[in-house]
Amino acid sequence: MSEQAQQILQRVFGFSQFRLQQDEIIAQLQNGGEALVLMPTGGGKSLCYQIPALIREGTGLVVSPLIALMQDQVNALQQLGVRAAYLNSSLSQQEAQSVELQLRQGELDLLYVAPERLMMPRMLSLLECTKIALFAIDEAHCVSQWGHDFRPEYIQLSVLHERFPEVPRIALTATADTPTRREIIQRLALEDAKIFVSGFDRPNIRYRISENQGNARDRLLRFIRNEHDGEAGIVYCLSRKRVDETAAWLSSKGLDAIPYHAGMSAQDRQQNQARFLREDGVIIVATIAFGMGIDKPDVRFVAHMNLPKSLEAYYQETGRAGRDGLPADAWMIYGLQDVIMLKQMQENSDTDEAHKRVERHKLDAMLGFCELTSCRRQALLRYFDDHLDEPCGNCDTCIEPPETWDATVAAQKALSCVHRTGQRFGVNYVVDVLLGKDNSRIQGFGHDQLSTFGIGKELDQNDWRNLFRQLISRGLLKVDIEAYGGLQLTETSRPVLRGEQALHLRKFVKSSKTKSKTRKTSNVYGKVADEKLWEALRELRADLARQQGVPAYVIFHDATLMEMVERQPQTGPQLATITGVGERKLEAYGDDFLEVINNHLSETSAPPVDTADETLQLFRLGMNAESISQQRGLTPSTIYSHLASAIQKGDAELQDVTGLEESTLITLRNAIDQYAEEGRLKPVYEALGEEYDYNILRCVKASMQGEVI
Ligand code: ADP
Ligand code: ZN
Question: Which atom belonging to ligand 1 lies closest to the Cα atom of 39?
Fold first, then answer.
């Protein structure tokens, strides 16, 4: 692997290791080769072209359809000290000219361009007299006419290859399926490109799906309040009307929720999107018009109030959660009504039969996914030809395996009742007949005389609706749209009806029951060791972001702040070892953040001498660092720092503090001797396979300094 790439990763981005296949992809481009990259959202696609653009001579051109996001992307790069700019229709003529001048003078490392802009003859001739490092074609699936993000301008991008045959290209997408991949290669003439496919798993996303019991909104509210209080999230609804209602309702309950859909004015939409991106903890309620390429890293949940029409859509929409790798939820609630509506929409659409067949197959896969009784992640990955050996342990069916029941007899009753009422009625009516409801409509049709009238009293209405949904999902019943949603038998219903095929289905779970079993943590950040410091750091970050008019995460990600809380760096070199702190940000913000941390430490541990003494006394009483930390309400690293100085002064024994064998301690001392760079322990920590935490290493180091003195 290239040393240069590794250095840039560390120095500019503040990351210590490449992820997935980043290093191979970068090497491929660096040497002038081409690449097609399929990597899940949050996998780290951007670095794959940003680093080679920095290494290679000239400007890297990034083609992206996401005009609204270019400014944030460019801001984020500038924060890192990268010379980046963008060209799109939002710039004034003067601004655009100034960017073009920079480009011509070779003053840009990266330039983001909208595809239609790039294809303008003027732009192309400008590029001809410019040194270009590479072309990066982001969201490359937009070239696919089958996909729902099709952009006609993308088709023309094949021109790049013809006009600039010597400039390497990299196409990137998070879209998983093979037909799209083939289409990208063909349309962009990427036959010689090396293909990099990373797995599609998003292990930090927890998949959860449950049945709508008529209280979807309440359940949504409870979910957000209980598990994502104050956090950013996306709520997807099917219609504009539902978007408006849901946003208004959540707001009335005191949540910071705003709507987004195509029926709003461009300005309102723009404004709401900007608030969602820039501020902490905003919930956006949207139709699926929202979200393409949203690269906000700290979206903690995506909630679906309706069923997406395919697993591709589900994967893409839920994928917007947790790009930063911290835990996130994909939460969905769906019901019989969704199933019927999607089936209707599909049959009514005026595409040809071949297309319909594909869509029907996709919807069936989606429905099957909802009704699963085994690991959802395994099924999802299997659908994309990916593979997971063991059940994931991080989806609802793994955490709380659903009960199944033998529904054969109930299904027979249901199917038979559909048959006897003439295959003309909808679910509600048939259920009423099964329950033997006393109503005039039933009497009017004489259905109170049927043998199936009232034979279903062992189940209640919800149970029956749940059963019907599963029968429709499995294709045992179909919904006749022409006849106003009347249910009809299908070929596959006969064996069940005749009792030749048994049916095991998910048991209906009342929502009050599920509630008690879901996790209780208030939110993802509930885990941070030191809430006060966390809040102080967030406040500083928000101030800095406001001053510069950039989103908070552009300053530092949550994960970076969490690591600061965890490790409490007190000097510049210590701060530099935190993930996400590169050279430039250290210079720009280091002092501010260190000040907050050091103030916080002196407040919580003042007066320093006494507090260290107190720790030592408790230690002498036989308590270990963990229990002292609990008793004193101080973080373990504070306690360890007290103990480390005691070790250095000879007031405590290293072996007593760490509880480690002498032989292990010798290994650790040798590792520090060998790997510590200018006193930094990070290389040591890594050389030891991250097996010993920093607290232990600091104590060992302190004991060595004791020797020297
Ligand atoms: P994608 O475009 O694939 O969805 P991004 O390029 O936006 O993903 O990266 C997702 C997040 O992961 C970003 O916050 C980025 O800073 C971070 N990231 C990328 N590569 C690394 C790495 N090697 N180490 C640590 N963080 C990384
Ligand atoms: Zn699972």
Answer: 3
What residues does 332 pair with on adjacent strands?
Answer: 209, 304
Structure confidence at residue 519 (pLDDT): 45
pLDDT-derived band at 203, boundaries 50, 70, 90: very high
Beta pairing class for 59-63 and 110-113: parallel
Instruction: Delineate the domains of the chain, giving CATH numbers in brackets.
Output: 3-197 (3.40.50.300), 205-399 (3.40.50.300), 404-506 (1.10.10.10), 530-603 (1.10.150.80), 609-704 (1.10.10)
Rounded Cα distance, 44 and 42, in Å: 5
Q: Please state, for a pLDDT cut of 70, what percent of the chain lies above it.
A: 94
Q: Which atom of ligand 1 is nearest to the CA of 16?
A: 24
Are residues 611 and 582 in contact, defined by beta-carbon separation less than 8 angstroms? no
Instruction: Name the nearest CA neighbour of 223 among 376, 377, 329, 373.
Output: 329
Most distant CA atoms of the chain, gap in Å: 101
Helix 662-675 to helix 694-708 angle (10° resolution) is 80
Helix axes 376-383, 311-318, angle to 10 degrees: 110
Query: Could you tell me how far CA 184 lies from the centroid of its own chain?
Result: 24
Q: Output the ligand 1 site: residues, CB below 6 A.
A: 15, 17-19, 22, 39, 41-47, 295, 297, 323-324, 557, 579
Please report the atom of ligand 1 found closest to the CA of residue 45: 3
Q: Which residue is closest in CA terms to ligand 1's atom 12?
A: 44
* Percent of the chain surpassing pLDDT 90: 52
CB count, 10 Å around CB of 449? 9
Picking from 318, 313, 311, the residue whose alpha carbon sits closest to that of residue 294 is 318
Phi, psi of 285 (to 5 degrees): -105, 125
Helix/strand/coil (H, E, C) string of 207-243?
EEEEECCCCHHHHHHHHHHHHCCCCCEEEECCCHHHH
Encode pLDDT of 76-133 as tens digits.
999 999 999 999 988 999 999 999 999 999 999 999 999 999 999 999 999 999 999 9
CA 41 to ligand 1 centroid distance, Å: 9
Ligand 2 centroid – CA 314 distance (Å):
16
